Amino acid sequence: MCPTIVNNVETLCDVKHIVALGGAEYAKLGTPNNTGTRIVSLSGHVKRPGYYEIETGKVTIGQLINDPAFGGGLREPEPGRPPRKLKAVIPGGSSAKVFKAGEKFKLKRKGPDGQMVEQEMDMLDLPYDFDSLIAAGSMSGSSAIIVMDDSVDIVEALANIAEFYAHESCGQCTPCREGSLWMSKALHRLTHGEGRASDADYLVKIADNIPGGRTICAFGEACSWPVQSFVAKFKDEFIAKGKADEERRAQGKIDPDTTPSQQHESATAH
Questions:
Q1: What single DSSP character describes residue 80?
Q2: Which end of the chain is more exposed for a tag (fewer CB within 10 A), N or C?
Q3: What is the C-alpha separation between 117 and 193, in angstroms, rounded?
């Protein structure tokens, strides 16, 4: 079998440029400490999802989403509906910590005099490179950007991500095996009418106890980061959904979206 790196599209694209330009000239592309090119996978609620090759750090997140050469802006709303608004961006694959629309970051940048100065920057103005996204608390990771507009149910989005990680865990390390499954189950509960207001804190408690050298590989961190960041930045939505479920159950009402077996369990439990 061939090494998987041979089939890595980004690697092959880099090799093409390096062979054509030479290593020294290729290193002049991009920005200092973030040289070369990247293949960005842009998906979600944009008009022009796709793969785009950029010079590292020469394009901002906002440009990737809104520029006609890239995403072309948020998708059009349904007829009669107001324009959509940006809600969140996952900047580097599903494990990357989510950014909330409107977030501001204080990053150190080199000023005109060559000295480092602290500069406040909107999330959309972040250069798409390694250092800037790390400084903002996330990462460019696999360079897979997922754009979410205000039609997204954040709890549902995280539940989808958590289900994937629970399924993909190899099961060798207990914190990852059990933790990813518990988080997925809690989010399944929240998205199926059985949520609790305390589930937000419960999720973070689990997520905080998986990483930190407790697992052999980085999958433990990968399944924890989305939960930590989604709940931290959209905690009110998790609490509201859990509280609504609690109130509905207290009144003896059944969520119409639950399955017959779930409805039976809910009815017999009260």
A1: T
A2: N
A3: 49
4-148: in CATH 3.30.43.10: no
What is d(CA 65, CA 125) in angstroms, rounded to the nearest whole number?
11
Q: What is the pLDDT of residues 4-28, one digit of tens each?
A: 556 678 888 889 899 999 999 999 9
Write the pLDDT tens digit of every residue in 88-125.
999 999 999 999 999 999 988 777 777 788 889 999 99
Q: At residue 62, what is the residue type?
A: G
Please tell me the class of the 154-258 domain. mainly alpha
Q: What is the DSSP string of 40-73?
A: EEEEESBSS-EEEEEETTSSBHHHHHH-TTTT-S
pTM for this prediction: 0.87
In sequence order, the 6+-apart residues with CB closer than 8 A to the CB of 18 are: 26
DSSP H helices, 6-153, are 9-21, 23-26, 61-66, 130-135
- CA dist 31 and 58 (Å) reads 7
Question: 10 Å Cβ neighbour count for 190?
Answer: 23
